[in-house]
Amino acid sequence: MSLPNCPKCQSEYTYEDGDLLICPECSHEWKDGEDASDSENEIIKDAHGNVLVDGDSVTVIKDLKLKGSSLVVKVGTKVKNIRLLPDATDGHNIDCKVDGIGAIKLKSEFVKKA
After folding, report:
1. Rounded distance, CA 48 to CA 87, Å?
2. Please, which residues have CB within 8 angstroms of residue 87's CB and are 6 or more apart in sequence?
3. Could you read off the pLDDT of 27-74 as tens digits, one per residue?
4. Rounded Cα gap, residues 97 and 14, in angstroms
5. Domains of the chain: residue spans and CATH
6. What is the pTM of this model?
7. What sign for the dihedral angle of Cα 101, 102, 106, 110?
8. How many alpha carbons lie under 13 Å from residue 14 in its C-beta half-sphere?
9. Which of 50, 44, 18 is nearest to 31 (CA)?
10. Phi first, then psi: what are they for 45, rounded to 5°?
11. Three-state SS for 74?
12. What distance in Å separates the CA atoms of residue 38 and residue 2, rounded to the nearest whole number?
């Protein structure tokens, strides 16, 4: 059985991991038969309607209390080099690191593009 090329970068070096196919060159993950544009067509926008992309810097527009902690991400906190999670089911579609807090996930409705 031959595995399909990566739909994102057309690499022939794909491999299986459980029910996912993975490209070692661009790190794209997909299920066999899934169209590559499915996850890329979901556009994530900030609170003001600006389109966000991986690597953007954003600013928090509301104090955000972290569940299970006494920590708060204060309004005006700048977060650099975000990673988007377009398939997030809970609405937390930004993965990032905040200085003094660490790795967290944010909702795009509480940030603006910096």
Report:
1. 21
2. 39, 42
3. 888 887 765 555 455 788 999 999 999 999 999 999 999 999 999 999
4. 30
5. 1-37 (2.20.25.10), 57-113 (2.30.30.40)
6. 0.64
7. positive
8. 23
9. 18
10. -120, 155
11. coil
12. 23
